[in-house]
């Protein structure tokens, strides 16, 4: 009461709380503390709190006024004089949950260089922070500050990590307070004039914020067929996506959108391409400039042919960019990741931005970058050269020795040893004298798919594997194989899994389709013709090689030493069970109608995917299924949406609407006040993963904007 929780600070790449409450207002009348009753609610772009007592009414409205500064308007109605007192105290315990300490260690003990200091200024309070470079916890420059500035004079007292500020007013008053978190000296310098202007014209900034948010809603809420519940979720999705929008900072030179500002490992300005494609597709409809900027942020780090770190990966897009570069690039960040990229839906996203904006200059800007990305896949991830790229891993110190031998760790009992080389790996897996293997290239390949521990890439828990073997299966069914990809001079480029993935083949089908469409619009008919031919070739291959008629589903296929008589690299990997990759050909439009009908029958089977919350990331029949396993059971909204759109595309809209209804009814908190989650439990609807998750919000908005139109 009297303040908004936190604040939480984005310390370059992580969210860290500064206080439980900071700058909390207490009011005294005739020397006695006023006892208020409180109401609090949110509006798009604003937090509102009202405090009511006999003779005194206060309304507090908090909005962002700039990229780094929020503005609090405090309207006080009173017939007599009041004393206003603000107080705040920095957190001392290292970690806490719901206000209860989770650690006996203090922040100062854990980070002695943090050196948090409070100081009074002529119009407020400043908290300064020392330099901490703890790559997995806390990153500060030594110049960062949290500043409070007020529109009325106050008397401030500092007592260690605690402050109180007080002021006298004679009656009804409206006052304004700014809150700024500035991460380096340059931001401190630049924001000084901005704060001065905000406090000089606070009403202007509040009106501008309200108008900006009204603009998002007017642009984004255009579906007359949507129900009130569906529209409510769409508003929540717009708020979530805009709330995860971050200004340029550090190595990220464009505005970007992070997965979840409130998710510790998804916060700061960390940006993934897989998330970006989806976020931008949705935001094109209500915040198109930020949709463009998010895509530009990712492509700004596309590898050039003269790159000093990995010139062999020209056209490649890193899996994760962030405030701090990797040590290889001269930084000290641990999140920056060039071990893999993400699936090629970039052209799908870029094209949607064009479809909304009709900005042909946007296509001209992005087309050569998309072509370079497309070419990288075929050069660095197509081991057998048949035009169907595999998932894999880059040449990287995490994956291989300095001379290019693939690393892996063998575990047996309480012993483990790290070995290297594909021949050694093949010998170890053939002998089978181990309990488990850890293979960094396998992890990177699964990351590259966007489905981190999916069954199709050989991931299965030990108890699940034991049961699979007891039921007559073989451990080798879950052993993945690798190949080295080399250039014409024999130089190592990276690694491919020796399997062709049906989802990546389907995404590449779409990639070719959209590149052809762009080429046509840009007056490049020969290039358009070539991409259309590549798309048709992929569609034929997917339907010939990746569909299993007995189980009526699409699968990845193994790459054998020699192609099969029908031209396929190998047979479907049926034994690793069914996953959402099986409906990727439907979403992308590569499936035949007959195959699509079969796949949809599996999707609608309540013994497969038609669960309480439907279309999870592994079928109930999958040996590696677990309702709470990240990518082997949980329902992810992107895969759910891909499934519904695929069903609709092949004439099964009514059944898809039934699944959508089940999702809206059963995904806990979705249609009420709960945040939009990263994923949901397929059997119970429980919230799982990070809250306020961008790509979930993006696909929920797509449901509203596209799917729920009659």
From TrEMBL:
GO terms for molecular function: alpha,alpha-trehalase activity; isomerase activity. The keyword Isomerase applies. The gene is ygjK. Pfam families: MGH1-like_GH, YgjK_N. Residues 270-696 form the Mannosylglycerate hydrolase MGH1-like glycoside hydrolase domain. Coiled coil: none annotated. Residues 1-214 form the Glucosidase YgjK N-terminal domain. This is Isomerase. Keywords: Isomerase. GO terms for biological process: trehalose catabolic process.
């Amino acid at each position: 009461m009297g303040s908004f929780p936190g604040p939480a600070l984005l310390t370059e790449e992580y969210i860290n709380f500064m206080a439980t409450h900071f700058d909390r207002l207490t009011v005294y009348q005739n020397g006695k503390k006023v006892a208020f009753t409180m109401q609090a609610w949110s509006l798009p772009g604003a937090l509102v709190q009202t405090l009511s007592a006999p003779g005194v009414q206060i309304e507090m409205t908090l909005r962002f006024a700039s990229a780094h500064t929020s503005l609090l308007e405090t309207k006080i109605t009173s017939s007599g004089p009041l004393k206003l007192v603000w107080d705040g105290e920095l957190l001392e315990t290292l970690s806490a949950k719901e206000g209860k300490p989770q650690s006996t260690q203090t922040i100062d003990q854990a980070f002695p260089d943090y050196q948090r200091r409070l100081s009074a200024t002529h119009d407020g309070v400043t908290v300064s922070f020392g330099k901490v470079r703890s790559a997995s916890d806390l990153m500060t420059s030594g110049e960062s500050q949290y500043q409070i500035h007020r529109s009325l004079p106050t008397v401030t007292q500092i007592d260690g990590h605690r402050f109180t500020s007080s002021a006298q007013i004679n009656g009804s008053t409206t006052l304004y307070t700014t809150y700024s978190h500035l991460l380096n000296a340059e931001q401190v310098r630049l924001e000084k004039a901005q704060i001065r202007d905000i406090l000089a014209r606070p009403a202007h900034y509040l009106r501008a914020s309200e108008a900006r948010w009204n603009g998002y809603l007017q642009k984004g809420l255009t579906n007359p067929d949507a129900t009130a519940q569906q529209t409510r979720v769409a508003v929540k999705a717009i708020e979530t996506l805009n709330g995860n929008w971050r200004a340029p900072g550090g190595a990220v030179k464009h505005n970007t959108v992070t997965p979840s500002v409130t998710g510790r490992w998804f916060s700061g300005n960390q940006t993934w391409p897989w998330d970006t494609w989806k976020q931008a597709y949705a935001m094109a409809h209500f915040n198109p400039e930020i949709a463009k900027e998010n895509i530009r942020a990712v492509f700004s780090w596309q590898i050039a042919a003269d790159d000093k770190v990995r010139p062999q990966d020209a056209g490649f897009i890193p899996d994760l960019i962030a405030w701090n570069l990797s040590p290889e690039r001269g930084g000290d960040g641990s999140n920056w990741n060039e071990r893999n990229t993400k699936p090629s839906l970039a052209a799908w996203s870029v094209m949607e931005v064009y479809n909304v904006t009709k900005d042909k200059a946007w296509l001209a800007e992005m087309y050569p970058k998309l072509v370079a990305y497309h070419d990288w896949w075929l050069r660095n991830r197509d081991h057998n050269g048949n035009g169907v790229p595999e998932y894999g891993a880059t040449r990287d110190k995490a994956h291989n020795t300095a001379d290019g031998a693939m690393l892996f760790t063998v575990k047996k009992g309480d012993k483990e040893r790290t070995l290297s080389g594909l021949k050694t790996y093949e010998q170890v897996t053939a002998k089978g004298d181990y309990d488990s293997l850890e293979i960094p290239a396998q992890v990177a390949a699964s990351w590259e798919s966007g489905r981190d521990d999916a069954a199709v890439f050989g991931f299965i828990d030990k108890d699940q594997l034991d049961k699979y073997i007891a039921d007559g299966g073989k451990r080798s069914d879950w052993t993945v194989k690798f190949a080295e990809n080399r250039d014409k001079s024999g130089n190592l480029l990276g690694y491919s899994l020796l399997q062709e993935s049906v989802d990546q083949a389907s995404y590449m089908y779409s990639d070719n389709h959209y590149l052809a469409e762009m080429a046509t619009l840009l007056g490049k008919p020969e290039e358009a013709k070539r991409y259309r031919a590549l798309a048709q070739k992929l569609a034929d291959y997917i339907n010939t090689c990746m569909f299993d008629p007995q189980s009526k589903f699409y699968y990845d296929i193994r790459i054998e030493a020699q192609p099969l008589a029908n031209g396929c690299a190998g047979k479907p990997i049926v034994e690793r069970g069914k996953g959402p990759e099986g409906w990727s050909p439907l979403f992308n439009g590569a499936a035949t109608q007959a195959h699509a009908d079969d796949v949809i029958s599996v999707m609608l089977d309540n013994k497969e995917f038609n669960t309480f919350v439907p279309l999870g990331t592994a079928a109930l029949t999958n040996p590696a299924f677990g309702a709470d396993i990240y990518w082997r059971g949980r329902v992810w909204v992107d895969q759910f949406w891909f499934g519904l759109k695929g069903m609709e595309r092949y004439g099964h809209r009514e059944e898809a609407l039934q699944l959508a209804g089940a999702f809206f009814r059963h995904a806990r908190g979705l249609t009420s006040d709960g945040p939009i989650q990263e994923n949901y439990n397929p059997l119970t609807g429980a919230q799982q993963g990070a809250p306020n998750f961008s790509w979930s919000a993006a696909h929920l908005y797509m449901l509203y904007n596209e799917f729920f139109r009659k």
